[in-house]
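queue> holo job accepted (fe (iii) ion)
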Amino acid sequence: MDIRSDDFYPTRLERPHASFERRDPVIHSDCAERANGPLSDTELARYQRDGFLVFNDFLDDDTVRRFRADLQGYEQDDSVLQAEGTITEPGKQEIRSIFGIHEMSERFDRLTRDPRLLDMVHQLLGSDVYIHQSRINYKPGFHGRGFDWHSDFETWHAEDGMPRMRAVSFSIALTDNTPFNGPLMLVPGSHRTFVPCVGRTPEDNYRSSLKQQKIGVPADAELDRLIDHHGIQAPTGRAGSLIVFECNTLHGSNANMSPWPRSNLFFVYNSIHNQLVQPFCGNRPRPGFLGNRDQPHGITARPHSPSRQVG
Ligand code: 6CS
Ligand code: FE
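queue> job finished
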């Protein structure tokens, strides 16, 4: 397949290709925008260095409880269980993820518009933003399968047509994240390297990749090199904690062998200047609940959901 002239990050190739340094800034805002946001210089420097930040106690206990009740409701709601964006665990009935949740839940939509989150995102991406993708991960006790090592951007670039690295993911824990229930693992500093992956993307790959990703997983030798150099961090913390991670930061998680679920809210902000184009893998675009298309206007802030000060 010929490489398009607008493809800054060729991947899903026929043969292995060496990793290379990212071709986009990590923090896109100018000096004035950087100074005008909730993240301190120290936090901005840590995000630049590691590709993620952790905030314990971002969401208050009452809001966590309300989201948890919503999740239980979804498990009994046939219209949700039958929705195309609802993914079950491979070979099981347990829910693995529900995508497009910001369009189904008023509470979730309000959370994504919390001024403290939007102020942080504007500071990092230097522009108005919209929701590229949202989901609830259930990761039930005993049956919650893991997620192989990957860069979200690699998938969003190849399969959704996201041109540049100008997006950031937010993951809010609705259950305690312990060393035993499959917490998110991140490779600090990996966001600065793009790792091309080998293998043509099958049509409608998402129908299997959301259960278990096989395409877009970096080669072991590359993972070995990056992890050997940067190590692995697995932030644990109480329900209500927030992890903010750059779209190209390598991450994954182990299966949940504990009795305790590891449920989290997950939503991605993309810059309005980074609109999705034709997928770079050459396939037709994925459905809107995976990659929100044609969003020329940024989302607006709404009244605070009760949560503690960020930072
Ligand atoms: O394909 C996707 O868009 C999703 N897959 C993974 C493993 N992480 C990011 C995203 O939610
Ligand atoms: Fe991911």
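queue> The two ends are 45 Å apart (CA to CA).
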